[in-house]
Amino acid sequence: QVHLVESGGGLVQPGGSLRLSCTTSGIVFSLATMAWYRQAPGKERELVAIISSIDVSANYADSVKGRFTISRNNAKNTVYLQMNSLKPEDTAVYLCNTARLWGQGTQVTVSS
Q1: Which of 34, 67, 72, 80 has the fewest CB atoms within 10 Å around its CB?
Q2: 70 alpha carbon, distance to own chain's centre
């Protein structure tokens, strides 16, 4: 059975940092392109970052470039999202994705 389980969300002040993790099972993780999306209330789901399986190249939404870093550990079947210099507009549910598979999401709230 396939599972994508996110963790690491929480409440943080503007300018702070969080590191999200998505641990997977039931997939060949080393061959999977992995992505982080986010969805804020009343807004469409947005691709935040994506990392390939082969050359580990990454791409980011313009709104997070220079602040967020996606990475992966194939030995742990886990993908990460390091989020620095967080802003209130980063507040959303962050979801892990590969192909048509989704995690349940983890809430990130940036507020003073």
Answers
A1: 67
A2: 7
